[in-house]
Amino acid sequence: MNCPSVARRWLLAVALFSVSCMALAYNPFQDDVSGTPQPSRWPNDSVTYYVNPTTGSNISTTGGGSVQQVIDNAFSMWESTPAPFNNLVLTDLKATDAGTSSLTAPNANDCQNVIGFDDTNTADFPTGTIAFTEVSTVSPAGTTYSCSGQQETSVLPSQLVDADIEFNPQIQFTTSLSPGSNQFVLESVALHEIGHLLGLDHSGLADAVMFPFGDTTAAGNRTSLSLDDLLGIAFLYPSPNFAASTGELSGTVELAGTGAFAAQVLVVDVSTGNVIMDRLTNADGTFNILGVPPGNYNLLVLPLAPNESVGLYTLGDFSGWSCGYGENSEPCCDPTIDRLCSGKLANPTNYTGKFY
Ligand SMILES: [Zn+2]
Q1: Quick one: how far is CA 305 from the chain centroid?
Q2: Domain formed by 246-325, architecture
Q3: Distance from C-alpha of 117 to C-alpha of 126, rounded to nearest angstrom
Q4: For residue 63, what are the CA distances in angstroms to 59, 115, 180, 215?
Q5: CA-closest candidate to residue 196, choices 56, 346, 11
Q6: pLDDT value at position 344?
């Protein structure tokens, strides 16, 4: 019996909404499978979710729909929002509302994806946390894992097996799209956390729903998916439209005649000058960017030169790559696992370069 790796992602509130020069675009969760990063996803393009309807007075429904409607609507936006460049839906993702749950804290081992608003464990919400998603994966394919006591076997190289979302009961939310002062638009936060539940990590593009900071101003309340978000979900759960209506950029980055590992390749739209996508190169310097919308692009490459005093970087040196994942060798299948792994996540050194 193997155990899921558990990672937690928080959406943080910031006082100032600042756009840094970072240009990382959509970014799936990944597991290292025999040295190769494999995106984490749900099998069969299909995911089910439960909602714990217990909410406190911190959620206002004045001028908006019910909490359940907001959650259902957010899932449906990930499933069915057409891409702006061809008006086609690029993903085959199917999300199903499976009913209600009474779970009030994340449980990585029940294989039920629960969205809750009543997690009273204040330790789950470090200062500034709006909401978080705890995502569990197993790898490689053929791994057996426990699901509410039942033994299951994974079919994907990196498979999502459980994801739970908790909204901070100490933060003010509104189901309206016109927030009052100090209110977060619930749909905006739900879209972000559901992106994690579906397998997306943070994006560095500030107009993306998957940008890791939110605030209560209009700029911080993103209630529609950006192109980056749409390409990210299509990458994980592609419909035939994805390959048919987008292109691919591939090549090799060399530094002093050899393939440069983890060089950052930026795709710059010639007409606007905007960076629309990026990728890091593989160990041999190759890169392959899928899902590029029709257009004309320049590539800008930023190599990360190795530190000669310590030798070449390895995958493990990059916090954004494995940050927060429990190691397979760690004791697991244990109710304390999520605390254990969140303890790793809470290490500030894991965040350097990732969040700022
Ligand atoms: Zn997040």
Answers
A1: 27
A2: Sandwich (2.60)
A3: 16
A4: 12, 22, 11, 20
A5: 11
A6: 29
Contact 48, 42 (CB under 8 A): no
CA of 326 to the centre of ligand 1 (A): 18
Q: Tokens standing for 249?
A: 């950029």
- For residue 24, the CA-to-ligand 1 centroid distance in Å is 14
Q: b/e map of 294-309 (b: 16 or more CB within 10 Å)?
A: eeebeeeeebbeeeee
DSSP state of 325: P
- For the chain, the distance separating the N- and C-terminal CA atoms, rounded to the nearest angstrom, is 38
Q: 5-239, which class in CATH?
A: alpha beta
Boundaries of CATH 3.40.390.10 in the chain?
Answer: 5-239
Q: CATH 2.60.40.10 spans which residues of the chain?
A: 246-325
> What's the CA-to-centroid distance between 292 and ligand 1, angstroms?
24
Ligand 1 midpoint to CA 9 (Å): 5
pLDDT below 50 — which residues of the chain? 1, 14-23, 314-356
Residues 6+ apart with CB under 8 A from 272: none
pTM: 0.79
